[in-house]
Amino acid sequence: MEAKSVVDSEQHLLAILAMLEECRAALITNGNPETAHLVSVAALDLRMKLGGIGEDELIALCEEMMPGKIAAEGLQSARSVPAPRRRVRLRLVK
To answer: How far, CA to CA in Å, does 26 sit from each of 20, 22, 92?
Structure first.
C-alpha cells in the first residue's frame, strides 16, 4: 500500500510540474518574464526533489559548467564556507 501511495504522490508531483511549465510558457507569452523566472525556480526545486538531487550536487554541477573565474566569483558568494572542488557523479533522471 505504501509503495502505491509513493507512486501516486510522484505522479501528482509530475502533474504539478507539467502545470508549472505551462504557466511559465503562458507568462512568457504574456510579457511577464520576471514572474516566469520565479515559476522556473519553483519547477527546478520540484525537479530536484523528484530526482533526489541535493543543493550541494546542484552547486557542484554549476561549478563544473561555469567557466573558471565566473564560477569562482559567482558561487563563492552563495556559500558561507568555500568547499573543496570535487568530482560529482550525476544521475540520469527520467
So the answer is: 10, 6, 28
Single pTM value for the model: 0.59
Quick one: pLDDT band at residue 16, thresholds 50, 70, 90? very high
Match 573558471 to its residue by C-alpha cell.
Answer: 68
Burial of 13 (0-12, 13-18, 19+ CB in 10 A): middle
What is the C-alpha R_g of the chain?
17
Which ranges of 1-94 would DSSP assign to H, the alpha helix? 2-29, 33-51, 55-65, 68-76
Cell of 90: 550525476
Residue 2: phi, psi to the nearest 5?
A: -65, -40
* Cβ neighbours around 39 below 10 Å, total: 20
Spans of all domains in the chain: 1-52, 54-94
Q: CA angle at residue 8 from 5 to 10, to 5 degrees?
A: 110
pLDDT above 90 for 28: yes
